């Protein structure tokens, strides 16, 4: 180690050199947790913990692959003994690093919670990881154009045989049936908690979509049809926070939640956009006029089918439309209202 600056002339009697060979035993160091002096009221504390902690994690994908992610993790435990000074917070980071860093799994998450109840004597423990999950999104209309190297026959053959099953031909271009794709990221939260021996696990996925106001659409159409005025319905970027409780032995895939949202609220914001896609998006919004209450109820319909078939154990939905008409948002909150469930 590089030699440190000598400040001994300022404060005589102190050694200002760092000793990197010194290694004390734990019992040789002061332990503030054992200090008999406890300040403030002698009451239990519901949550004591650390966060957000940066952790590299590897998450299994639905397609059998894996995804490297940068997660923000938080870990809390209950301080149930009113006479205890605190919890061993230095152990919290080590516990998460040992159990889920580089290999995130439901077993690892459950092991963290179990260890909190055993080593920290917590009746309640809670762990949350926040991360952005990338997945592919297809363009609404734009297809991949095939190059000459991709074509087993001359290009003119495909132009003359437009009914062939393998390719589409549009304006003398031979197109693949595959649409152009791009990456879109979904903000997610994975949560686990244990309370008096009962474990619960949750997944939250943020789904961004466009909402066109049905009222504004009718008013703009009225202005155009009756008075010949150019008018546009107001629309805005919107978000649905979809939270589901699941069985850790049968986890819900992030991709499944996204596909459900795309089915019931199809106006998802787009990443690959050419003019034909922008026009398609305008038509898609026109075909799916939606209030914030509508979005919540539509998503409820899909999630309730999952609940009825045992795919999930509980769910809640928060839809928020970032209004372009108002300086405030339009918000709907909808719960399944399971006994003892999410509120």
UniProtKB/TrEMBL annotation:
Keywords: Hydrolase. GO terms for molecular function: GTP cyclohydrolase I activity. Gene3D superfamilies: Urate Oxidase. Signal peptide: none annotated. The keyword Transit peptide does not apply. InterPro entries: GTP_cyclohydrolase_FolE2/MptA. It holds the Pfam family GCHY-1. This is GTP cyclohydrolase I FolE2. It comes from marine sediment metagenome. The lineage of its organism: unclassified sequences, metagenomes, ecological metagenomes.
